[in-house]
Design goal:
The complex is a heterotrimer of chains A (168), B (201) and C (205). Helices cover 49% and strands 17% of the residues of chain A. With 168 residues, chain A is of the alpha/beta class. Classes of the chains: A alpha/beta (168), B alpha/beta (201), C alpha/beta (205).
Chain lengths: 168, 201, 205
């Protein structure tokens, strides 16, 4: 049973944090969140074919005054590493990376992906926060957005199944 | 048109070809129809066509089949010009376009929004790219591709959300799948792929 | 057809359009022809179209030009269906196809052998995609799109080779460092659009 509480709280937190421009690629565990993002009239949502292009689109939108986020799986985060380095980091572009944490503790079938995610983020110098509790959603997403804007860098929030309402 | 029906229709024609399948329903269905070590399941979205091309270039006398999907191909559309340049004659590239990210919550892909994968492939320089109009036509095109011995891409618009949960689960672990696949190639081709484990003494 | 002639034909006409260019010869030629803070050079191969798309969506009243190359577009064909979905009316996307990786040792790209970028774009859902045959044709397509405020996707097959590389290398070098160029562009956008892009540096007290 997919819970709706977490995804709707994430959406509300994103909006409260000022995020108004979102690019995305789906994952099974992100389906509810993306459905909410899609329906929300306050957010511009650009669905992608590959995650790298999302970093470019967010960079352009930021230069045009938007506050941006990309929603993707951690495999997609790995796809976007060159763009994160040579566009987002090189141009000082803040983007909130909302990454579904496949291969997290308790997960099945994605352990390799799970094991490299945080080290690669650290290697890129991108700060990351793992979100496990519903009551921390609001503060974490708001805080990550503030930190991204203030540091002028991408900041990652790893979304676990617990907050996406997908933990069995 | 259903992907399962298309796969059933060509199973015999595929024979002992090596098959690289994209993860999800395609792999589950194919593995139920033709089980064995000649199948490799690829979980890197988009990389089926690249892996299959590398294999086809390495084993030029062996037929290689790539079972690809729309979401996967859109993620690696850059591979199309590369395939067009290399065009291994022993590679048949099958693309099932169901308009959704089947394993990722059934959200729509860009093919529901006007992207035409066959047109893109032709634009990229792939001469033998076509849409199959029916299961029978899919089978015909497959056999034409086999005879043609020129790299061919056959795409089929199929229903979204085919239920494959009743099929047996893909029963081997990922690394195991790779080794079994390589050992299968060694036997089939009479070559050595996996080196003897070292050290010698 | 030469890229430099195409760019020369449109440079006086683009006004205060924001321009995203691929690195290498295009950026050098363009900034020589239209210097200023409204130009941004992207060094992420393939991302010109994506950055320009994001900017065009964020500033729907501002004219955006994207100057791309064949090697770069081939690296981000995945972006084409996304561009097809949005088609912002204020974006003109141009790709100069010289059949080589100009900034990476002049090796051939797939367009030199087999690929037709305009056909791929059409396949991705961009029915507007068109090849132009001369700098005049190029200019009139750009003008038409600017005047009518409609999305355009223009390809030009241009000459290539070491002599063209030598030519743009004789032009003054791109003289702004990367982070600096981003800030200059953002400040320029703030000034010309009357919006705030870069937040005030913290802390408040």
């Amino acid at each position: 049973m997919a819970g709706e509480t977490g995804p709707s709280m994430i959406l509300e937190a994103m909006k409260e944090a000022g995020i108004n421009f979102v690019t995305s690629l789906p994952d099974h565990n992100l389906a509810k969140l993306l459905e909410f993002v899609d329906k929300d009239p306050d957010l511009k949502h650009v669905p992608l074919c590959r995650e790298e292009e999302g970093i470019g689109i967010c960079a352009g939108a930021y230069m045009g005054g938007k506050t941006t986020a990309i929603i993707m799986q951690n495999g997609g985060f790995l796809n976007s590493c060159n763009a994160l380095t040579t566009t987002a980091l090189n141009f000082n572009i803040p983007i909130v990376l909302l990454i579904y944490y496949a291969g997290d503790i308790g997960d099945e079938g994605f352990s390799t992906l799970g094991s490299v995610t945080e080290p690669v983020l650290q290697g890129l110098g991108i700060r990351c926060y793992v979100l496990r509790k519903l009551e921390e959603i609001r503060a974490t997403i708001k805080g990550a957005t503030t930190l991204a804007i203030d540091s002028r860098r991408p900041v990652a929030v790893l979304l676990t199944k617990d907050v996406l309402g997908m933990r069995r | 048109m259903r992907r399962y029906g298309c796969l059933q229709a060509i199973a015999e024609d595929v024979g002992d070809a090596l098959v690289i399948c994209t993860v999800g329903g395609a792999a589950a269905q194919w593995n139920a129809i033709r089980p064995g070590d000649g199948n490799l399941r690829c979980r890197t979205l988009g990389l089926v066509s690249s892996i299959a091309m590398g294999l086809a270039l390495a084993l030029q006398n062996r037929m290689v089949v790539a079972l690809d999907g729309d979401g996967a191909l859109l993620m690696n559309a850059c591979a199309l010009p590369t395939l067009a340049c290399q065009r291994p004659g022993n590679l048949i590239h099958l693309v099932f376009d169901n308009g959704v990210y089947e394993s990722s919550g059934l959200r729509p892909t860009a093919t529901l929004n006007g992207a035409d994968l066959v047109e893109m492939a032709r634009g990229a320089g792939i001469k033998h790219a076509c849409w199959a109009s029916s299961v029978e036509n899919f089978k015909q095109e497959f056999n034409k591709a086999k005879e043609r011995k020129a790299y061919s891409l056959i795409a089929a618009k199929v229903e979204a959300g085919e239920d494959y949960r009743e099929l047996p689960a893909f029963g081997v672990a990922e690394v195991e799948n790779a080794y079994r696949f390589m050992r299968h190639i060694e036997k089939l081709e009479g070559i050595r792929v996996v080196p003897l484990p070292g050290p010698r003494h | 057809m030469r890229r430099f002639d195409c760019l020369k034909a449109i440079a006086p006409l683009v006004g205060d359009a924001l321009v995203i260019t691929i690195g290498g010869g295009s950026a050098t030629e363009w900034t020589h022809l239209r210097p200023g803070e409204g130009n941004l050079r992207s060094r992420t191969l393939g991302l010109v179209q994506s950055i320009a798309l994001g900017l065009a969506l964020a500033l729907p009243k501002r004219q955006l030009l994207a100057i791309d190359g064949d090697g770069a577009l081939l690296m981000n064909l995945c972006g084409l269906p996304t561009l097809a979905r949005e088609k912002p009316s204020n974006l003109i996307y141009m790709v100069f196809d010289n059949g080589i990786y100009e900034a990476s040792g002049l090796r051939k790209t797939a367009t030199a052998e087999v690929a037709d970028l305009i056909a791929v774009a059409k396949g991705a859902g961009i029915g507007e995609a068109v090849w132009v045959s001369s700098p005049e044709d190029f200019k009139s397509r750009v003008l038409e799109s600017m005047r009518q405020r409609k999305f355009a996707f223009i390809g030009a097959r241009v000459e290539s080779g070491p002599e063209y590389v030598a030519e743009f290398r004789s032009l003054p070098r791109f003289d702004v460092s990367e982070v600096e160029s981003a800030y200059r562009m953002m400040r320029y956008i703030e000034k010309t659009e009357g919006i705030r892009v870069v937040p005030l540096p913290g802390p408040r007290h």
